[in-house]
Structure formats: C-alpha cells, structure tokens
Amino acid sequence: MVQAVDGKTLAAMLIHASASLDAEKQKINELNVFPVPDGDTGTNMSLTIGTAATELRQKNPATVGQATALCASAMLRGARGNSGVILSLIFRGFSRAMKDKDTMDGIDLADAINAGVIAAYRAVMKPAEGTLLTVSRLAGDRAGRAAEENTAFEYVLASAIDRAREALADTIHQNPVLKKAGVVDAGGMGFVVVLQAMLDELQGIPAPQSG
C-alpha cells in the first residue's frame, strides 16, 4: 500500500491519465448527450489533460506542489469545451490545496479533490446533478472519509474510485436526458478514467499506447 507520492510519481500518474483518456475518448464521445449531443466530451477532456502531460514531460517536477501547479496552469490554457474547463477547474483547486507540498498522502489527496470540487462548483452558474460535478463531489466525499480510516494515498485513491464508479452508474437516473438515451454522463466517465489511470500507474499497470 503506497503511503505517499512525490512530484515525479504524481507527474507519471497524470501522464498515464492523459494516455488513458486518449484511448477512451471515442467511447466517452459516444455517451455525450448532455447538455448538448455534440459528441466531443472525450476529445475535449483528452486534449485538455494532454496539454498538462506535455508540460509535465518537459519539466520533470520534483514536488507535488510543482507538479500540480504545472498541470493546473497547462490545463487552464488548453481547456476545451465545458468538460475540459470543469476538469481544469478541478485541477486548479487541486493545485491550490497542494501549494508548497513536497509529497502527498491520503489526507492531502482528499483535501485536493475536495478543493477541486469546490473550485468547479463555484465556477458553474447552474450546476446540474448527474454530471462530472456530481461524480467528482461524491468521490471527494468518500476520499475524505477514507482518509480518516487509512491515511495511505493508495487506499484513499482506490476508495474515491469505487465511489466515483457508483456515482457514475447513478447519473443515468439523475438526469432525464441521460435516462432517455440510456447512457451515463460522459464527463463523469472521463473523470473515472482519470482516477483509474492514476491508480493503474501507481500499481505498475502499463499505460495504453497512443496511436
């Protein structure tokens, strides 16, 4: 059980997340019916986190503070579409919570996710439930409780993923547009892919090959 991660490890996790989103983007695009059925949520989220992956590869951050700051700055500049903007806002909050931190344990991770959720909710004028916002908020709630049970980074991340998956499955019942189409929320799916990829990297599972 990994207790804490440094900047180099976190950067590798985020680069893995970018590769996974790129691999899954078409599947996510096909879920994209809300708020408009334009079929680009996966592409937008992939392009957004892809800008961060490029930056992280070039800069090799040593601390989590540096890694999250680079990620947030790059994603803000490269944000595409509603889903990309919300994802960038989550990472901006994440970065603020991790400012000046060398390493990140489970308590830090829970704080970072919840700071990201707050930043995203504040920026959306009319937050709709059954979306990326809902999935991230419930994942953050679970992360906070998990950190009280076990402060290991890996435990808190795995717990957040379990709750995010449950929340994603429930989006079909929360949003009438999704219910009618018979799909889960595309942005929420993208968020689950990001979290799962981060855990995969931590556990030594290879990232998907691009192209």
SSE ordering: EHHHHEHHHHH
Mean pLDDT over the full residue set? 93
* Strand arrangement, major sheet: 1-2
Number of helix segments? 9
Number of distinct beta strands: 2
Structural Rg: 16 Å
Overall 3D shape: globular
Poorly predicted residue ranges? none
Share of β-strand residues: under 5%
The structural class is mainly alpha
Helix content: over 70%
Distance between the termini: 33 Å
Major sheet attributes: 2 strands, antiparallel
Structure, explained:
With 211 residues, the protein is mainly α. Helices cover 75% and strands 3% of the residues. The protein has helices at residues 7-31, 41-59, 64-78, 81-98, 106-123, 132-149, 153-174, 176-181, 186-202; strands at residues 4-6, 103-105. Strands 1-2 form a two-stranded antiparallel ribbon. Helix 3 (64-78) packs antiparallel against helix 4 (81-98) and helix 7 runs antiparallel to helix 9.
List the defining traits of the structure above.
single chain, 211 residues, mainly alpha, two-stranded antiparallel ribbon, 9 helices, 3% strand
Helices and strands in order:
Layout: E1 4-6, H1 7-31, H2 41-59, H3 64-78, H4 81-98, E2 103-105, H5 106-123, H6 132-149, H7 153-174, H8 176-181, H9 186-202
Antiparallel strand pairs: 1-2
Q: Summarize this, please?
A:
This protein has 211 residues and is mainly alpha-helical. It is 75% helix and 3% strand. The protein is globular and about 45 Å long.
